[in-house]
């Protein structure tokens, strides 16, 4: 993972806190600044309480990318995608990570702590953070994600 000047925002619920903490350590060791929005313990909590501030960090420009972790990654992705500027995806492997960055300009990687091992998550996150967005024909497709948008066909 290559260092970046804009922080990566992190968030997790109780099911994902241990994986989030290990990802934070790996990101910081690789030189990435990190904004950790919690949770910071194993007490039961609600994933949306962490997904929303993480999404806000991207929307306001405080972070370029984010990582959200819960039991499956699904709840976090659903909550984050309520924000118009967010393109959150549940990832399971490096192929998905590369394609969603290259074609969808995804900005939030969601992982399931109960469904993936930490080594696979680290490899997948590395692919997500280092794959550039291709632009071009994908721009109009991304524009269509916004309700009411009718971009011109090329």
From TrEMBL:
Molecular function GO labels: ribose-5-phosphate isomerase activity
The keyword Cell membrane appears for this protein: no
Keywords in alphabetical order: Isomerase
Catalytic site positions: 70, 103
InterPro entries in UniProt: RpiB, RpiB_LacA_LacB, RpiB_LacA_LacB_sf
EC number: 5.3.1.6
Sites where the protein binds D-ribulose 5-phosphate: 13-14, 71-75, 104, 114, 137, 141
Entry-linked Gene3D superfamilies: Sugar-phosphate isomerase, RpiB/LacA/LacB
GO biological process, one term: D-allose catabolic process
Pfam families, A to Z: LacAB_rpiB (PF02502)
Protein family: Belongs to the LacAB/RpiB family.
Protein name: Ribose 5-phosphate isomerase B
Organism this protein belongs to: Teichococcus coralli
């Amino acid at each position: 993972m290559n260092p970046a000047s804009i922080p990566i925002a992190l968030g997790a619920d109780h099911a994902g806190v241990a994986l989030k903490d290990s990802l934070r350590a790996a990101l910081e060791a690789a030189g990435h600044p990190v904004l950790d929005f919690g949770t910071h313990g194993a007490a039961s909590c609600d994933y949306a309480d962490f997904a929303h501030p993480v999404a806000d960090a991207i929307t306001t420009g405080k972070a370029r990318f984010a990582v959200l972790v819960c039991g499956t990654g699904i709840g976090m992705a659903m909550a984050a995608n309520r924000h118009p500027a967010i393109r959150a995806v549940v990832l399971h492997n490096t192929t998905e990570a590369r394609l969603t960055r290259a074609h969808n300009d995804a900005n939030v990687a969601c992982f399931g702590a109960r469904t993936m091992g930490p080594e696979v998550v680290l490899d997948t996150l590395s692919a997500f953070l280092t794959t550039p967005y291709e632009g071009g024909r994908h721009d109009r497709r991304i524009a269509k994600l916004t309700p009411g948008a009718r971009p011109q066909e090329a």
